[in-house]
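Thread title: Can someone regenerate the structure for this chain?

I was given the following input by a collaborator and told the matching structure tokens would be attached. They weren't. Posting the sequence so someone can regenerate them.
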Amino acid sequence: MVAHDNKKADLMEWADFNRGTLALHDLYATGGTGRKIVDKTGLRIKLLKDGSHGGDMEIGALIANEKLDYLIFFWDPLKSLPHDVDVKALLRIAVLYNVPTACNRATADLIISSPLFQSERYRPKKNIARI
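Best answer:
Regenerated them for you:
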């Protein structure tokens, strides 16, 4: 789970609402976002670095190494950030590895409410383009 500053409260509310479902999974989050979610929900989350200090890239590496099945990233399309390149790279790697990605609450609701989210057998097929 990742969120830009203007979206952290929204992600915290979403995680709190879905606490029971999320508690059944191994969770990762960038540092600042994850600490706020842990404080609000008590969920067990593996905390990575803050997004602007490499956390986005750590999430990307987990995706590239097929350690993450979903990406919940509430990002702010109206605010330019110094690490926008990292944000683009993270979204690019998620698409490349066919990882379902929620960039807002509506999409996160659709992902977490899907029967596939609870399925032990479902793993999105990794269609990696080879050039």
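Residues 62 and 68 are 6 Å apart (CA to CA).
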